[in-house]
Automatic annotation (TrEMBL):
<dbReference type="InterPro" id="IPR018389">
    <property type="entry name" value="DctP_fam"/>
</dbReference>
<keyword id="KW-0813">Transport</keyword>
<comment type="similarity">
    <text>Belongs to the bacterial solute-binding protein 7 family.</text>
</comment>
<protein>
    <submittedName>
        <fullName>TRAP transporter substrate-binding protein</fullName>
    </submittedName>
</protein>
<dbReference type="Pfam" id="PF03480">
    <property type="entry name" value="DctP"/>
</dbReference>
<dbReference type="InterPro" id="IPR038404">
    <property type="entry name" value="TRAP_DctP_sf"/>
</dbReference>
<keyword id="KW-0732">Signal</keyword>
<dbReference type="GO" id="GO:0030288">
    <property type="term" value="C:outer membrane-bounded periplasmic space"/>
</dbReference>
<dbReference type="InterPro" id="IPR004682">
    <property type="entry name" value="TRAP_DctP"/>
</dbReference>
<dbReference type="GO" id="GO:0055085">
    <property type="term" value="P:transmembrane transport"/>
</dbReference>
Length: 357
């Protein structure tokens, strides 16, 4: 690992940020791997517009920049990528629809937003299915996951690679949460928790006694600020880079769902590319996805600790407390395992088991 990455980057939207500047602290993030490989043949020029949901300091943005650097260097500047962060171009669903119509070239949604295209991806939304990052990476790099990416064929979306959104954690502005009873609020109302428009996520929070409220990510900060919802669930890095600690007093390390990202290209854009460019785009996507996973791992615990330093009260669950959450969401498996595919879930569980040996 290299020293703190202090490059100054100019971001889309006329924002300039220097790592190591905010709060005079930053995580020790690894530099991007050196770009290897020869320059490919001249097959014309492409300028790719890529919309993402997260902020300029997020691993998603940094790895997207690296993706663009690979393409630019290995095409001698004939392929360039312009990244638009912070949901500037819409939420995950809207940007995928833009890919289908050809009005946007690339996006990087959470897998949870894609289940309307490939139902099997709902397996990643099942609670506590992936107990460790190592298990999650093993699944994302498996033939099972590749089959899911291939299943997008014909949807207007070319799915390139999985990377890490991360383990979802609960934050809220109402009270500390150390048990499902704290979520349900036995003596007070249950927490209203923003979720994605995803039926498995809704089922999880209903099982825990909350009032789940689907909402676009770009609307979330103001909704929490105005008290429309009490809280939300996202990885620590997303909570930090989105400044949710400014409107959320309490965080709980539930790790209830591990969510991947999926880098996507419009099929219309893909079809306009020469085969050698297509091969390079796939290679660059996989390389940048590996880098994004590495950044996310480096960012995760640091983000939690930073949130605590900035005033968020963090509850870390012990084994007994975690088991109470796992027991509470068992009805979600009973409802959704037959619909997602019990054989698929068994295949994933086998990969998880093998990754721990």
């Amino acid at each position: 690992m290299t020293p703190i990455w202090r490059n100054t980057l100019t971001f889309v939207g006329a924002t300039t940020l220097t790592f190591g500047m905010a709060h005079a602290q930053s995580p020790e993030l690894s530099d991007p791997p050196e770009i290897e490989g020869e320059v490919v043949g001249d097959h014309g020029s492409h300028t790719l517009r890529m919309g993402i949901g997260l902020a300029e300091s997020s691993p998603q943005y940094l790895s997207s920049q690296y993706f663009g650097e690979i393409l630019e260097q290995r095409t001698d500047g004939r392929i360039t990528v312009n990244v638009f962060p912070n949901s500037q171009l819409g939420d995950d669903v809207q940007m995928m629809e833009m890919l289908q119509t050809g009005t946007l070239d690339m996006t990087y949604p959470s897998s949870s937003a894609t289940t309307g295209y490939v139902e099997e991806l709902a397996a990643f939304d099942l609670p506590f299915l992936l107990p460790s990052r190592e298990a999650a990476v093993a699944v994302m790099q498996s033939d099972v996951a590749q089959d899911m990416l291939d299943a997008f064929e014909g949807t207007g979306l070319k799915a390139l690679a999985f990377s890490e959104n991360g383990y979802r954690q609960l934050s809220n502005s109402a009270r500390p949460v150390a048990s499902p009873d704290d979520v349900a609020g036995l003596d007070v109302r249950g927490l209203s928790v923003r979720t994605m428009e995803n039926p498995v996520h809704l089922a999880i929070w209903e099982a825990l006694g909350a009032n789940p409220t689907p909402m676009a990510f770009g609307e979330l900060f103001s909704a929490m600020e105005q008290g429309v919802v009490d809280g939300q669930e996202n990885p620590w890095s997303t909570i930090l880079t989105s400044n949710f600690n400014e409107v959320q007093d309490y965080g709980t390390e539930t790790r209830h769902v591990y969510t991947p990202f999926i880098m996507m290209l419009s099929e219309r854009t893909w079809d306009r590319m020469a085969p050698e460019y297509q091969e390079l785009v796939l290679e660059a996507a996989r390389q940048s996805a590996e880098y994004e996973i590495q950044l996310s791992a480096e960012y995760d615990d640091w983000s939690r600790d930073q949130l605590a330093e900035r005033g968020m009260e963090i509850t870390r669950l012990d084994d007994e407390q975690l088991a109470a959450f796992q027991d509470a969401v068992q009805p979600v498996y009973e409802e959704w395992a037959p619909r997602i595919g019990e054989d698929l879930i068994a295949d994933i569980q086998k990969i998880v088991e093998e990754s721990s040996n």
